[in-house]
Amino acid sequence: MTDVTFPGLAGLGPPPLRRVRQAFPRPRIEDVEAAVAAEISRPEVAATLRGKRTAAVAVGSRGIAGIARITRALVAGLREHGLEVFVVPAMGSHGGATAEGQAAVLAHLGITGDAVGAPVRSSMATRVAATITSPHGSEVPLHQDALALDADAVIPVNRVKPHTGFRGPVESGLCKMLAIGLGKHDGAARLHREGYGAFDRLILDAGTALAAAGHVAFGLAIVENAYDETAGIEAVPAGTLAAREPELLETARALMPRIHAGRIDVLVVERFGKDVSGIGMDANVTGRGETGAPLPGFDGPDIARIAVLGLTGATGGNAHGIGLADVITRRLLDRIDLQATWVNSVTSGSLACGRIPPAVEGDDLAVMAALAAVPGAVPADARIVRIRDTLSLAEVAVSEPVAEEMASHPSCEVLGPWDGTWG
User: What percent of the chain has pLDDT over 70?
Assistant: First the structure.
């Protein structure tokens, strides 16, 4: 690829930044193994395993805190109940929509047979487990991983949190994993053809129907705090999933991190990837929804431009969502796996997420290119916020005008100059 130069930006650099510590509520579980064991032992949960011989534990592609530990504890607990356990990837079309790619995504997250004590069985084959009528009136077959359906019990494990593209009684969580994650490419593509405008009903309806089909024993719901730590673990029996998950979603929403600033000229995101968010950077932090439109109900800062500097290792080159950035670096561009990215974007129907922004050489130049596209902004008084990623907002680096604003916020403490490292 030919190198591109940007006249007028040479020699320019962003202003110095100051470190700001942001405080958020911090409930957390120290011993996740004990928490998982306690949940499986609850009578109403143990009852869902009675008479079962085999169990498929479904794990997705998100970078959930301690996911390998949680999965290992779940496998151990299920074995104590006498079940033979295996793990299946539940991530729709991620991993390039191949069995090998999805197993590799789990391995990136630390989930291998040796690590969790159960074999990982990956396949893209599906069978239809139930059928629903969409809000548009069309009949929608609900696909499920064929290997999972061969087990006596299916147990999805997922973080419950607000989604990046729609609002509804359930968003990202157990219902969505059942409907889309375990649906593999076939199921994910079919549901996304209904459009995000239907997801406020579609995901709950699909999750409810699949939970009632008799394959699901319970789901293991995880809620995280703003520090990327486990705040809650709950085993939700299939029969109570539709009622309980909306309550867990509201708990998760209250714990989400945010940037305590009113207006930002350039948001600089150092790390972008599927292990951070389904679209690489959480729309609940940036306000940029998966469809390319503003996220409904977003009440965070007004962000003019976003510069993204790099991809996480665990994303495996999948840069779905990078089209929501305004500027990227050349090193990021060189690491994009177009097959994985564009399959994800086309399957989800979020074509804006698969577009490639201008790529410039070097971090500082990327920031300045983004700033140059903000009308009236000049480096001396630019409002710049730099973050490690949208999961890591306990410390941010900000330019002086933003530091002055945040100094008056009760949840912020302005510290010394930012030295380029994170605490």
Answer: 99
Of residues 52, 93, 24, 2, the one with CA closest to residue 257: 24
Q: Which of 180, 182, 176 is nearest to 252 (CA)?
A: 176
pTM given for the model: 0.86
| Amino acid occupying residue 167 | R
Residue 18, pLDDT above cutoff 90? yes
Q: Which CATH number fits domain 32-255: 3.20.20.70, 3.40.50.1370, 3.40.190.10, 3.40.50.11440?
A: 3.40.50.11440
Asked if residue 12 has pLDDT above 80, the reply is no
Instruction: Enumerate the domain spans of the chain.
Output: 18-24+258-417, 32-255
Q: What is the pLDDT of residues 259-287, one digit of tens each?
A: 999 999 999 999 999 989 989 999 999 99
Q: What value does the mean pLDDT take over residues 310-330? A: 96
Residue closest to 309 by CA, chosen among 371, 370, 362, 383: 362
Is residue 68 within 8 Å of residue 311, measured between CB atoms?
no
Half-sphere exposure (Cβ direction) of 233: Cα atoms closer than 13 Å: 28
- H runs (alpha helix) in 168-277: 174-176, 184-192, 199-212, 241-255
